[in-house]
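Title: Comparing notes on inverse folding

I've been comparing how different people in this forum approach sequence design from structure. To keep things fair, I'm posting one structure and asking everyone to reply with a full sequence. Here's the target:
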């Protein structure tokens, strides 16, 4: 547990020297060693028992304007040490490890935890990274100075559910029904002219030479799924060699887009990863789930065991914001044991469909841009990583989607 608490303190404070001046103890004889002490609320004594942790929750408590879930809102001076009873360390753990999802069993029709179930959603903090705000508050109390964070990055990510529009007989029949003859003719001559692949090229051109903008394309490789949610996808093995070569030459990272079916099956995860590895001829270590369908602790442990080091699913499909309470990549912590893994979770802040789809936020482009700029302001302030997800198919089907993303890149 000592290693876990050490990691959480370092994650909050960032600077080892500053972190060492924050104690996490109830032992009064130790207080003089620290400038700030947070008194543990008991959460780490009962991690394996979600019911006991649930009994400690204080969902309406605030300390110095920050919602805190455990402990009390009291603080006092002990000689030169500020002692705080609001347990920010345990609350940070509750959010970062998704302990909350161990306590609340309710899910949507795709098995997803939704923003309205989350404490951050309920207390109006979903679009501000609360854990990072704790770090800022503690830094100010320890040093007397407002921290200045740098190194913010914009990360454009793209799930290639359908890397090309026309690959299978079903795709071509759909084109005939829609009478899309011109684009079908262009594609049949050369698949590099396929509208969904052309959209990938358009997306790849967005980053320019900006050093603080990077890009990840997630390729879908499953060929075995019987899930309805996977049925419209085009596996990577269906594309022509010419498109595959262009994909390999994109100046972007490539990850694997795990199928809807793979979330329930470790061997499928492994085979989809190996297929990506084989077809692209390079090791793949980043991933995201189709439909953002899975963020189960057991599944993240499986992903780690097969060699995934960076996971990008941690966002909500129904609302933009910071599901993990942070805008920075964080090591996955197994919620019930506190085991610190080597898998990094990259918070996903916004998705094209979340903003545009009437089932979710249903915003016009002006309001969508305003939401993105607000997220950008938060991420820049905390020196984090703004991960956004834009689908190549959305960009091909609606020119305004590319324009919206372009506006975000320009504003960055
Ligand atoms: Zn997908």
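Reply #1:
Here's my take.
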């Amino acid at each position: 547990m000592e290693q876990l608490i050490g990691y959480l303190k370092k994650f909050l404070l960032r600077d080892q020297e500053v972190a060492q001046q924050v104690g996490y103890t109830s032992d009064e004889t130790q207080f003089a060693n620290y400038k700030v002490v947070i008194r543990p609320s008991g959460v780490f004594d009962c991690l394996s028992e979600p019911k006991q942790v649930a009994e400690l929750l204080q969902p309406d408590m605030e300390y110095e304007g920050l919602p805190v879930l455990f402990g009390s809102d009291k603080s006092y001076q002990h000689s030169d040490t500020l002692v705080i009873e609001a347990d920010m360390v345990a609350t940070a753990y509750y959010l970062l490890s998704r302990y909350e999802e161990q306590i609340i069993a309710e899910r949507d029709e795709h098995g997803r935890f939704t923003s309205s179930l989350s404490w951050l959603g309920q207390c109006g903090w979903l679009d501000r990274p609360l854990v990072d705000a704790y770090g800022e508050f503690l830094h100010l109390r320890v040093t007397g100075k407002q921290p200045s964070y740098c190194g913010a990055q914009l990360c454009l990510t793209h799930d290639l559910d359908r890397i090309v529009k026309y690959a299978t007989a079903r795709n071509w029949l759909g084109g005939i029904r829609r009478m899309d003859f011109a684009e079908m003719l262009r594609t049949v001559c050369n698949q590099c002219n396929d509208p969904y692949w052309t959209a990938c090229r358009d997306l790849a051109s967005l980053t320019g030479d900006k050093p603080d903008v990077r890009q990840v394309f997630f390729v879908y490789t499953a060929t075995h799924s019987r899930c309805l949610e996977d049925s419209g996808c085009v596996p990577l093995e269906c594309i022509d060699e010419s498109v595959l070569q262009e994909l390999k030459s994109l100046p972007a990272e490539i990850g694997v887009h795990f199928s809807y079916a793979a979330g329930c099956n470790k061997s499928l995860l492994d085979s989809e990863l190996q297929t990506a590895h084989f077809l692209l001829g390079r090791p793949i270590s980043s991933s995201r789930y189709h439909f953002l369908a899975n963020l189960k602790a057991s599944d993240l442990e499986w992903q780690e065991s097969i060699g995934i080091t960076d996971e990008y699913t941690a966002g909500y499909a129904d609302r933009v914001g910071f599901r993990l309470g942070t805008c920075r990549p964080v090591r996955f912590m197994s919620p019930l044991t506190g085991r610190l893994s080597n898998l990094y979770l990259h918070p996903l802040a916004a998705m094209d469909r979340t903003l545009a789809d009437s089932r979710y936020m249903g915003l016009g482009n002006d309001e969508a841009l305003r939401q993105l700029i607000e997220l950008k302001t938060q991420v820049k302030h905390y020196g984090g990583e703004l991960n956004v997800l834009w689908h190549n198919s959305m960009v091909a089907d609606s020119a305004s989607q590319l324009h919206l993303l372009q506006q975000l890149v320009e504003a960055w």
